[in-house]
Structure formats: C-alpha cells, structure tokens
Amino acid sequence: MVTIEKSFDTIPSIKIVFLTCFVLNLLAISQISQASALSCDDDNAAPIGTLFEDMDGFFVGSNGCAYDPSLFKAENITAVEPTNGSTLENTTPIFVVNGGFATLDELINRLQATADAKQRPVIGIYNAYLDLLGEFLKLFDLINPSAATFRDEAFEQINDGHRVTLHGISQAGFIISRSLIQLKFIIWLYNPFSESRRNELIGLVDVEVVGGLGVYFPDGPRYVHYVNERDWLPYLSGIMIPNAHPGEGAVIATFNYQNEDCSDDPGSLLWEDYPGSNGSFETGNHKFGLNVHSLCAYSVTGYPYDALRDFAPEVGYATVPLELGFQIE
C-alpha cells in the first residue's frame, strides 16, 4: 500500500557542510588507490592503473571500461545491461553517479544492480574517490567534472528531443543539484526569449536521488527522492532539513529500513532478495552507518520510477510513505 501526503516547499537554507564531510569520511570503506578495471578489454578506454582522480567525471560502461567524456559521447559507449537477458521495454540508458569515497569497482557494482532493478541499460558517471580534503572541496566545486559530464550530455540529448534519466546516491545529490542548475542556465542562454521552450527542455530530465545530500534542486526536472527515515544524512544535509527545496513537483518516497548485513556487505541487496533475511522495517531513531545508508540499505530504489511519479503534484511536492513489509512487484 502506498499513501500520499502533500507538502509545500519554502525558501531553501544553507546547511553546515563540515559535519557532512566528516560523516562521509566515517562511512568510507576503501583506501585511495589506483583503478583496477581488470575486466575492461577496450583499448580506447582509460588504461588499467589510471588514478581515480584522473578519471573524475569519466563515463563507465560494460566490463568496467572508463571513457574520457571529452573524447567519447554516451552513444559510443556500451552500456551495462540487466543480467537476466530479457527483452527491454526501455532501451534508453540511465546515467548513474556514485556517492563519495567510492572506488571504480563499487560504481561498477552499482551499475549492475541498477540495471537489474530497473530493467534498463545503465552508464556510469564516475564521481572519483579523492582524499578527505578533495571530497570536502567537492561541496564547493563549481566546475565539478561529474556535474559537467551529465550537463553536457543531457543538453545535447534533450535538444534532440530525447528524455534523459539521472540517478545518484548520497554525495551524488550535491553533484546532481549542481549539474541541473548549470543545465538550466545553459538552456536559458540558448533560449533567452522562450520560457515555454526552456520548460519543455528541462522537463525532459528524469531524476532519482537516493539518500542524497544537497538542500536545493532546481525546478523543472521530474524528481523522485528516496529517504530512509532511519538514516541521519538526509535530515542533516539533504532534502529533509527545514526549508529544503526538493524541486517543484517532486515526489519524496520515504520508508524505514535497516539491515545489519549491510554493514558487512554494503553493496546492493538484489531486488529479488529484498528485504533480506535480516532486514527490518521497524521505525526508530535516526542512525549513522552502512546498515541504514548504503547501496544495500537503499535497495528499495528498485521501485518503479513511473509508479512514484504518478503521485507528483502540480504545486509543491508530495511525500509518499512506502509500505515495504512485502515484496514489491
């Protein structure tokens, strides 16, 4: 059962980002190292051993191959496909941006999990693993490579009349927000005298933000925000803080979930196995940790995007509490 509660947003406020960066560092599970896409067999891709920081904003396709967006367009990249081999109703790829402190291998796992859950091809945009200072500076970086990659790719596609989908978790919320603000500005530069054309173009962007950080998302795209109510981060530096702006017409899908197995294996819990043997839907206090904030804990993002967008209001935003005590078909 899905219930709906409508709310109305107000002027966004600025949240302290030092705490956010500190928490992200606590959640980091890997060390700075070199990329290890050993499965990549494409000579045109970034060579094995390329530093993570040198691949910031690169596209990532099948077999873990990473591509420089200044040299390759998404249409030239082989996307990650669902593993079940079924015929896909929608063959347009979803662009996935990973959260902070993520290795390339972790993004590759996320791409496969997203492709399987959504039954669509997926192309990654790598939000590179940097040191603590580098991750902190991403919160202020106006020329973020991952934001720029999607901005440029999306602008080209929507101008050709194609719908484009962006999906991101955790720190990727900041990057998505920044990318969409820049995209709206570029659309305005090319269409300064046609508001209807500007609205038409930005309305071709579909967005899913999963446990995301960031308090302001520009109006125009069609948003679905997932919030685990046991997870502190969206309440400290995300759309659940007072006066945050999730975007006009956004849908906020809320749920309660924690799973201690996610602490041991923070990778995605397969959608067909959800909620997992140790998953709990009980309500309770907000927490920090991988058991509430990880790919595993947010596996509920396999819920169909279009089904949630059916609740989108004309004004303000809609909060949709999800009842997850059963398998969603």
Account of the 3D structure:
Helix content is 26%, strand content 15%. By secondary structure, the chain is α/β, with parallel strands linked by helices.
Q: What structural keywords apply?
A:
329 residues; alpha/beta; ten-stranded mixed sheet; two-stranded antiparallel sheet; globular
Question: How would you summarize what this structure contains?
Answer:
This protein is α/β, with parallel strands linked by helices. The protein has helices at residues 18-27, 104-118, 132-137, 145-159, 172-190, 195-202, 233-237, 261-264, 305-309, and strands at residues 5-7, 59-60, 66-67, 94-97, 122-125, 164-169, 205-210, 222-228, 251-255, 258-259, 279-280, 317-321.
What is the topology?
Blueprint: E1 5-7, H1 18-27, E2 59-60, E3 66-67, E4 94-97, H2 104-118, E5 122-125, H3 132-137, H4 145-159, E6 164-169, H5 172-190, H6 195-202, E7 205-210, E8 222-228, H7 233-237, E9 251-255, E10 258-259, H8 261-264, E11 279-280, H9 305-309, E12 317-321
Parallel strand pairs: 4-5, 4-6, 6-7, 7-8, 8-9, 9-12
Antiparallel strand pairs: 1-12, 2-3, 2-5, 10-11
Ranges where pLDDT stays below 50 over 5 or more residues in a row are 1-36
**How many strands?**
12
Counting helices, strands and paired strands, the structural category is alpha/beta
Amount of helix = 25-40%
